[in-house]
């Protein structure tokens, strides 16, 4: 009987619970035992009560729950060899040799490393007498499948990540609220949104709310020139009758000399223009809360496919990432997508912004 563990890692994202639910129920449907790893990699290291077998009814009602109900953590110990060895010990002790990880690129890279190291870790556990060779024989390989849970939508090779559209929807709703008060007072608001090094949330929120101006890392603003351009645009919109101004700033926004552009930098320029300007940093309200229908569906379809992938994989199959491309659930070699995602950061560092935009797979950015 296949035993599959499912865990969430890194920042939570709306839809993670739907993904766990789908893995649990699909696994049970196919006759597997499914375990939840509580508290991300930290739970994998601690083992025992952090690995709990899940029943069909345990995940009832999880579609509409925000965050991740099995907890998550950013765990430094898992970066260490001894930490991964401890995690391997805990999994083998429970008889688990398949892991579905829902997280961002860092968490998934850690999972892929764990998988590639697994045979060595098992060998070490035999050599130091922790397990006999017979005991570990059925666990010589680890099967690992990745699901991208992140509001940032920063993974190359997938049109969207679990949680991105929920965060986007929430940002739009909040910007609408801000616009209402801004119009009342003829004010300008600079709204900072999340996304880490990715401008997807800022860009799409800006378009969806009709913002005056948007700052994203991939289309870096020209140093010493963006200030006058911003003023000119906001002024032009006012002359056309707009009563307020909205500027969306990605938290990772840069100028083309790679200087960070903060919401306050932008506000100061608007104040120079004589506007009554204020800053709103949306923060974690973007990440919490329930998932929109798109993310519930995406997470469900991907969770189902993750279990199928586990059952179909051979030790030679590279760890797959389950994504969505042109409305189809797809499997891609995980590390291929991770490498592409990392290369965007390198392109930005090298000021090759056109290439960075291309790799983001978002038509709007071009
Ligand atoms: O990756 C998701 C994300 O919400 C980013 O957009 C943000 O930069 C980061 O996580 C915040 O992390 P934390 O919740 O640990 O402060």
Automatic annotation (TrEMBL):
Organism: Zygosaccharomyces mellis
Superkingdom to which the source organism belongs: Eukaryota
Role this protein plays: Catalyzes the phosphorylation of D-fructose 6-phosphate to fructose 1,6-bisphosphate by ATP, the first committing step of glycolysis.
Phylogenetic lineage: Eukaryota, Fungi, Dikarya, Ascomycota, Saccharomycotina
Locations listed in the record: Cytoplasm
Binding positions for Mg(2+) per the UniProt entry: 105
Active-site residues from the entry: 152
Protein name: ATP-dependent 6-phosphofructokinase
Residues bound to substrate: 150-152, 187, 194-196, 251, 278, 284-287
Binding site for ATP: 11, 74-75, 104-107
Positions spanned in the full protein: 205 to 570 of 985
């Amino acid at each position: 009987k296949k035993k599959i563990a499912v865990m969430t890692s890194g920042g939570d994202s709306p839809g993670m619970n739907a993904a766990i639910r789908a893995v649990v129920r699909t696994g049970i449907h196919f006759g597997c035992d499914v375990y939840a790893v509580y508290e991300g990699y930290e739970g994998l290291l601690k083992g025992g009560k952090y690995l709990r077998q899940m029943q069909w009814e345990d995940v009832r009602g999880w579609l509409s729950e925000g965050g991740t109900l099995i907890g998550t953590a950013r765990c430094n110990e898992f970066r260490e060899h001894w930490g991964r060895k401890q995690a391997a010990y805990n999994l083998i002790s429970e008889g688990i040799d398949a892991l579905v990880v829902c997280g961002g690129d860092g968490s998934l890279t850690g999972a892929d490393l764990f998988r590639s190291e697994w045979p060595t870790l098992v060998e070490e556990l035999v050599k130091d007498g922790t397990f006999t060779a017979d005991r570990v024989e059925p666990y010589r390989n680890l099967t690992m499948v990745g699901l991208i849970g992140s509001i940032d939508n920063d993974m190359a090779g997938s049109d969207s990540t679990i949680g991105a559209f929920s965060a986007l929807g929430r940002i739009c709703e909040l910007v609408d609220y801000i616009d209402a008060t801004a119009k009342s007072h003829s004010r300008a608001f600079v709204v900072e949104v999340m996304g880490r090094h990715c401008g997807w949330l800022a860009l799409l929120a800006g378009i969806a709310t009709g913002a005056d101006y948007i700052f994203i890392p991939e289309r870096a603003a020209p140093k010493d020139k963006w200030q006058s351009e911003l003023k000119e645009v906001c002024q032009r919109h006012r002359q056309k009758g707009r009563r307020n101004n909205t500027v969306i700033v990605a938290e990772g926004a840069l100028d083309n000399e790679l200087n960070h552009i903060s919401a306050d930098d932008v506000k100061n320029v608007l104040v120079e223009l004589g506007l009554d300007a204020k800053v709103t940093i949306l923060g974690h309200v973007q990440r919490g809360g329930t998932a929109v229908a798109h993310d519930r569906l995406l997470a469900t379809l991907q969770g189902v496919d993750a279990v199928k992938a586990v059952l179909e994989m051979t030790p030679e199959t590279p760890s797959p990432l389950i994504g969505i491309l042109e409305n189809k659930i797809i499997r891609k070699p995980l590390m291929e997508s991770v490498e592409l995602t990392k290369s965007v950061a390198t392109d930005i560092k090298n000021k090759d912004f056109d290439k960075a935009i291309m790799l983001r797979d978002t038509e709007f950015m071009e």
